[in-house]
Amino acid sequence: MKPIRKRFMDLPAFLLILFFVSIGLQASWDCSAAAKEKLASSDVNFWLKELKNRKPVARRASKAERLARTESQATGIDGVSGKVTARSKKLRNEKAKKGPKKISVDFYKVDLHNVFRLLGQVSGKNVVVDEGVKGTLTLALDNVPWTFVLEVIKNLKGLDSIERNNTIMIYPKKKSIQWVGDNGTGGTLETQPAVVEVTGRTTSGVSKAKRLLIDKKRKSKTPLKHIIKAEKLIKKAASQEKHGNLMGAYENLKKAANLWPDNQELNRKLAAIALQQDDPLSAFNYAKEALKIDSRDGEAAAIAAVALARLDRVKDAHAYFEMAISEKPSRDILWNYAVFAFSQGDYRQALRLINRLEANYKVDPDIIMLKAQCYEYLAKTPQAITEYKTILSAGPSVPADMVSFAQLRLKALTGSGYSGQ
Known about the structure:
Shape: globular
Distance between the termini: 169 Å
Strand content: 5-15%
CATH class of the domain at 98-190: Alpha Beta
């Protein structure tokens, strides 16, 4: 009984201890809640104060607004109001005061196409030249606007021009031309001269796109279905070339050549266009393909020679020119070779080619002038004087600038002027 009693005597003490523990826990809880409330209150006050002092963040511009701002910087026009900015006005005023770029030129017997290419580079404009524009120019002007040079050339050569969309189209005054996109169109246009800069006339013998449709289906190893596709591309290219889109025509002809690789005329045409586009390496490669099909193709050999001349491979150019004249060469092939020989200082070879030209084709002022200069460089003064006098006596078919130059050379060689009367 004693152990049980002892346990009951300990019960009050246990309850007493439990009572004090519960009081302690309540006090601890109350203290914790007050602390939490105080902490929460301090957090709220802190963030309210922080938000009050914080500066507002600028709104991010929308994509449309950023695009409008970029355009206004580029064009000088505010994208929202549509007004011209002050910076743009200042630039325009400065440009207006400055005027067209001034240049100095000194041309002697320079092909007109090369002159227009130079003006295009100086002005920053696209220049498209009608195929009817031919001839050379002798002109010396100092520190004049490029627009003045253009007007002088137009007046001297009987040309006219239209300008639209940063593009100048130049054509003979007698020709009726309408811009692409107008009702109708006129003239096949070319953007570059058809031969190397040393020549004085374009290669008229280059095949036109319509000639590429010659029926060679029986001889060709190309499958008939490929030839039919190629012919469609060739017709499309002919239409593009007619409307002045030479690059579009070039791309379609290249596709046609991939389909019809053994078409000699097609490869020759591509070589000619590549030469016009200042791509002599492609011109040489296409001309070689044409020569693989027919090694007697004088036109392809001449194009290859001109391309090699542009690539400064003079020895190879001579070899291809010799190949070009091995059969009965055209007038243009002989002329191009003669001018090339003259440009290389081979005046005797140039004279031989000129004599061959005179024996087989009509003589024109260009041939006489080149012959006179060959004699002059070879120190054969009497022969040179004879040729210059021939120019002055040839009548109205001789361009005015050529007459003026012949008079100057005669004065220098004889010590007195000569009018040709």
